[in-house]
Amino acid sequence: MTIFLRSTRDIQTVKCHGRRLSTNLFNLLTCAMGDAPTRVGIIVGKRFGNAVRRNRVKRVFRDMVRQSHPDMVAGRGVLVFPKRDALLQSRDELTQFWKSSLERMRLLRQST
């Protein structure tokens, strides 16, 4: 099972029914998707910059998703829309921002 959203139908479902969280570094949409493991899609449009910048930001966000995926609740579809300022932050600051945003959206499991 993959941890990334790839199906156009699933992406459209999250876009239409998802709750939005806007930050300085990215927008986050999340929607309930059944009992399957949470899957994350990263969408970067051409307005973001050239292919090198788009691929770099996708690589950074995929890495953060892989690190945080074991701690995420099941049954959610998540879309991430990175903003240009995301590449200006250090990796540690971006990771902290990512985890705090997941907590705000209640996408992380409660630690016991």
Descriptive account of the structure:
The chain is built from three helices and four strands, in the order H-E-E-E-H-E-H. The protein is an alpha+beta fold and 112 residues long. The protein has one domain (8-99): Ribosomal Protein S5, domain 2. It has a four-stranded mixed beta sheet, sandwiched between helices. The longest helix has 18 residues, at 51-68.
Note the topology.
Blueprint: H1 8-17, E1 19-22, E2 26-32, E3 39-42, H2 51-68, E4 76-82, H3 91-104
Parallel strand pairs: 3-4
Antiparallel strand pairs: 1-2, 2-4
Could you spell the SSE succession in H and E letters?
Answer: HEEEHEH
State the separation between the terminal residues, measured CA to CA.
27 Å
CATH architecture: 2-Layer Sandwich
Low-confidence stretches: none
What is the CATH fold-level name? Answer: Ribosomal Protein S5, domain 2
- Walk across the major sheet and give the strand order: 1-2-4-3
Short recap of the structure:
The protein is of the alpha+beta class. 38% of the residues lie in helices and 20% in strands.
